[in-house]
Design goal:
The chain has a four-stranded antiparallel sheet, with no helix packed on it. 36% of the residues lie in helices and 15% in strands. It is built from three helices and four strands; from the N terminus they run ββββααα. The longest helix is centred in the middle third of the chain and has 19 residues. 4% of the residues are buried. Strand 3 and strand 4 form a beta hairpin.
């Protein structure tokens, strides 16, 4: 991706030229890139991953604040949100699973002091 200072010798540019170049701005930085048509794989595996993402997103929406707080604390100082961390820790765990038994419900899960035997 090219970073631009004066795209096309103008003060700004945005849009597509002849379905070959795209000019845009990302976080205030103008850029140009090659125009690509995104692929939309509909494989069984891709559908499974999309289903996991939507399930985790719905769980996050319904999660009470008390359950969100450990996730908020877990991402302090990290460049991601608590919701992103929740998805990050659960997507790989849930692929190829048929139940939610391995779901990570709290960022602190498994960090408690083990019982004395």
């Amino acid at each position: 991706m090219a970073r631009l200072t004066a795209p096309l010798l103008s003060l700004g540019a945005s849009g597509t030229i002849a379905k070959s170049l795209v000019y845009s701005v990302w976080k205030g930085i103008p850029y140009a890139r090659v125009h690509v048509v995104p692929a939309n794989p509909r494989s069984t595996k891709q559908q499974e991953v999309r289903g996991i993402f939507s399930t985790l997103a719905e769980m996050w929406k319904r999660m009470p604040q008390l359950a969100r707080d450990p996730w908020q604390n877990d991402v302090l100082g990290l460049p991601l949100t608590a919701r992103n961390r929740h998805v990050q820790l659960n997507v790989k765990t849930l692929i190829d699973e048929t139940t939610l038994d391995l779901l990570v419900m709290s960022a602190a899960q498994g960090q408690a002091i083990p019982p004395i035997n």
